Structure formats: C-alpha cells, structure tokens
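Structure ticket #2291
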Amino acid sequence: MKTKAVHSFTYYIPPPPERRHGYQEKNFDKIIAFLQAQGHELLSWQTQACPKSGGMWFISLWKTKNRQAIILDEQLLPEGHTAHHELP
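Resolution: structure written out below.
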C-alpha cells in the first residue's frame, strides 16, 4: 500500500507584547525555512485566532519531496511511532 508523504504541521504563535511597530515571529520563520531546506514543500496553510489568549495557530500541510526529508521525518517521530512513505 502506498502512502503519500504528506504531513501536518501546527505551530502556536503567542501574542506579542504591545509595540508601536510591526512584529516578526523569528522562531516561526526559522522553522519554516528549515522545513523547506530539508526538502518539504508547503501545500496549504491556514490560521486560527485564539480570542481568549490573543495568539493564533498556524496549521499547514507539507509534502515530502525527497528521501532525505523522509529520513528527517522519521528522526522527529516520538519513540515507538513509525512512518511509512513511498516515493515514485
């Protein structure tokens, strides 16, 4: 059975402190750049505001583009979990 190498990625961005100027979430930017550099392609994304906390969730789907990205995926899995991927 073939399994597409597509994974979800969620990230919570807390509300920034009050500022007079714009704000850049640098940790988030680093994570996204890392995923892209490792051979993942962003397929879709959306955000969900959290009115009580003032933050938001970033929810995305990523496609694994190469075998090296599959190896990285498996290294990041919690102990006891396995992944099955087949690339053409």
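Closing remark: The first strand starts at residue 6 and ends at 13.
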